[in-house]
């Protein structure tokens, strides 16, 4: 693949709109929209977040970190659970008519104002109020 | 703004890499990486998912749906909580060295095989095993 | 069993101290206390709460209610997940040196003051601030 | 208070039936049963479990342990969040017609069989399958 094509391909796949479009096509081909109330999508997002959390159960923070670096199977499961959270988040946003990139960008901007660099730098106390 | 510029702008903001880059710059300017163990990032993602869920507490599925369409304040809060979940998901992925778009794309492909259209179409039973 | 014995038996089993004593004996016979940090016990309680929530996924409130009344298998699973939440709650309380009955009683008392009957009666708005 | 009275008092308050009776009286005096679908009670239990988890956010396991022992304010907040989880668990059980003490006792018995002392003793591997 030429460098330019490879870059275009990457852009395509890391684009929220494209992922959402694929996901909605998947859903609609199976006629599953009828089951997807916004409340149940949000509930499902929570269940997937919990499965991600389960991967850290009975492991210290250091052990989790090491497993993510060195244990291929653990990293694959992390990837799968992150994917599940992400897909439900895209479905929630689509259902609620939200532009995820926009609200996330706005949130970073708000946090930049809320936590000025000079005050927040290396400051755990401020940090815990994030 | 010219049409082409507007399109470029949209691409920039809905691009996972760009959002992640902004978020990491925000984090590093404040020297906060030291607080961000993978275990605590995943735990924090769960807390934000729960705040999103709280917006649906004591509301029927129909009321949630209607509020998302007609209640500007409710929709703004939905947007903020979705943003918080999304930002922590980006931090988790960055910390774990995961490419979110890649794992999400792979998961859709896996689900396309797991739930063939002809069998899954409009089928809630199959669906609940998703 | 005589009526008095039956009553004593009931008292014994529904007593928090007795349940906790049985649970701690179970844990200590297996030398598992070493794995039970308070943080991981609380995390585990969340995972079990999530498994309970999963039983309601893709079901309307009315369907959940009906299943709890009429579906023996569903009710058994509800019982198991509630038991898991309860057992972790007892372990959390034991580890943190908390008297669950005392803090729960104090919370009811606080709520009785916070939500006076005359103002709160049938009032969903007040209620949602509970 | 005489020793016997004190003991009776303790029995009364640590009894699940009595706590449930107080809680139901509280609920019914405010005519709140109408808001308490089983699905929303279970959802609310999850929200409270999450508030308990939030107390451990950005704290290592050791710091959480120490705070529970030495920080009076932290311990009070632990107590409040545990109480909230407990009260919703009692409401869930009452609504679902479950005897919490019974299902919890049965679960301990099942775990005693599932994890025989000789095999499970000090064994984290077995443990993580609990």
Q: Can you give a write-up of this model?
A:
Four copies of one chain form a homotetramer. Chain A is mostly helical and 130 residues long. Helix content of chain A is 78%, strand content 0%. Chain A has eight helices and no strands. The radius of gyration of chain A is 18 Å and the shape is globular. The N and C termini of chain A lie far apart (43 Å). The model of chain A has no long low-confidence stretch (mean pLDDT 89). Chains A and B meet through helix 2, helix 3, helix 4, helix 5 and helix 6 of A and helix 2, helix 3, helix 4, helix 5 and helix 6 of B.
Broad shape of chain A: globular
Largest sheet of chain A: none
Estimated helix fraction of chain A: over 70%
Radius of gyration of chain A: 18 Å
Low-confidence segments of chain A, given as residue ranges, are: none
Order of helices and strands of chain A: HHHHHHHH
Strand content of chain A: under 5%
Name the biggest interface: A-B, 76 and 76 residues
Structure summary, number of beta strands of chain A: 0
Mean pLDDT of chain A: 89
Query: Please, what is the oligomeric state?
Result: homotetramer
| Count of alpha and pi helical runs of chain A | 8
Helix-strand category of chain A = mainly alpha
What's the end-to-end separation of chain A, in Å? Answer: 43 Å
């Amino acid at each position: 693949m030429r460098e330019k094509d490879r870059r275009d391909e990457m852009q395509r796949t890391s684009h929220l709109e494209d992922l959402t479009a694929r996901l909605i096509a998947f859903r609609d081909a199976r006629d599953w929209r009828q089951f997807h109330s916004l409340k149940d999508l949000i509930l499902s997002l929570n269940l997937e977040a919990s499965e991600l959390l389960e991967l850290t159960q009975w492991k210290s923070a250091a052990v989790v970190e090491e497993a993510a670096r060195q244990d291929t199977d653990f990293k694959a499961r992390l990837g799968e659970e992150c994917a599940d959270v992400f897909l439900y988040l895209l479905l929630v946003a689509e259902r609620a008519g939200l532009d995820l990139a926009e609200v996330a960008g706005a949130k970073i901007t708000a946090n930049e104002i809320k936590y000025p660099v000079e005050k927040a730098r290396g400051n755990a106390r401020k940090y815990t109020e994030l």
